[in-house]
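OP here, attaching both records as promised.
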Amino acid sequence: MRYFVAVAEELHFGRAATRLHMSQPPLSRAIKQLEAEAGTLLFARSPTGVTLTSVGTVLLDEARALLDHADRVRERVRVAAGVAPLTVGILGDGTDPGVTRLAAAYRRSHPGIDIRIRDTDLTDPTCGLRNGPVDIALTRAPFDETALTVRTLRTDPVGVVLRADDPLARCDRLRLAELSERRWFQFPQGTDPIWQSYWNGGRPREGPVVRAVHECLQAVLWNGTVGLAPLGHDLPAELAVVPLIDMAPSRVVAVWNEGDTNPLIRSFVEIATATYCH
């Protein structure tokens, strides 16, 4: 079936053989055997390549579904045996001490599990969950939670990041209205609108486009741009953060795909909840 799908997607035996890391003759023999078992042609052959017959088109849908199911079975067996890796997406916020404590606690509880980390920028608050490469994400809400399960681990007050020589940096606290005339950093087009709105204080703003935490800080240093950040994180001496008294706290969350029954995710969430709550 994998051979068939490769040929059906490439529509060329030579390219399919290269993709499968094999020579063309055994691939051709395998497809002919499959056609013999089906009792009909699956491909219409020509000097320039091949095209799917009507039967081949039907089989392609079924073959893809069958292979997807086989992959899921293999992964579930590996998980049950305790040998499957767990891929964790982390929003570009490596200074959070909670991540360090969680890593140590998880290693103690699951010393044999291979943890793979996918560090992501600020344009995808779900850290790749919707695209598939991540099993669970450590990130910040709010964002579109459709088809996702979200567990809040901690809430952090939020402040505005300013240059240290900015007159507003001398204030003990500020309101969002006092920043209405300032330029704010923006996220690229296509970023989750709920996420964008939160970090823009709930209204449209104008300013430079950024993708990562260090770009946000550089925008403040170089351009005097303002932006929001959780309190309690270390900043360069040239920057200051002033608490905002009318801004909802930022939630640190664990998030995973709704309905995912991977037991490694369940144990990860339990350890993360205990770690962040203490």
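Record two, same layout:
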Amino acid sequence: MIDKTILIVDDTVTNLDILSELLSDYDVIEATNGKDALDIVEEDDIDLILLDIMMPEMDGFEVCKKLKENVETKNIPIIFITAKTDETSIVQAYDIGGADYVTKPFLPKELLSRVKKELHIQDMMAELKLLASTDPMTKLYNRRYFSKISEHTLDLSKREKKDLSIIMLDIDKFKKVNDTYGHSVGDEVIIHLANEMRNNQRKSDISARFGGEEFVILLPNTDSEGAKIVAQKLRESVENAKIVYDGTNTLSYTISLGVSQIDLSKNQTIEDGLKESDDALYEAKETGRNKVCVR
């Protein structure tokens, strides 16, 4: 079975049976009306919707409009499958966000090809989105995407009146690592740190590579004391680790970290938080390295 979930929406059970059999290589969910279809997409991760137009109570056009108005479902591709062949219906289907339009009776192989094409397009779009948002070496978010998602997180923290903190960190004496062991080993150190960050962060934390050996972590629903605990745990994990290079040799490295809490009562911005955590990081570097400082 192909790891994709397709929702088929049609008020005729015979049509559902035919389509389900045709798409048996996929995980298929069936709905006989628009309301059930909207409930299903709220509960399940749907990759593609095959949608009839002529249904009682809520037709396919209305279902499509509701899906496209919802930020959580607007990107699910919709292929209309209908007996309506008039030009007005076809134009309307595309205008409200349909990805494709297939008329009944359909040719099974043609429909299957269109389904495969649409799912392939979605896979390519997801890959492009991932490439645009992540750092290619570490697979953490890149600086550009961090700027975007951090603003959204800040807005959410303001609405919910929840704390928000930032950790800024970098590798101690990283130039010496490159000069001593070479840039390829330096790259291994950066990748190792990124993995340590992933292993030590909570599900809600947002980690990004800011450039070079500098990284940042955004911690929702966390005050400065909580962020300090996270930072100390990461610092200790890195300090105790060994990196193997050239097969048998090992090296160790340390990191310095700066912590700040965004003061929502003073309407501080993400940039304010980044500056304060950067100042705290500078203090950590100037007072001995391999430590956590809080602003």
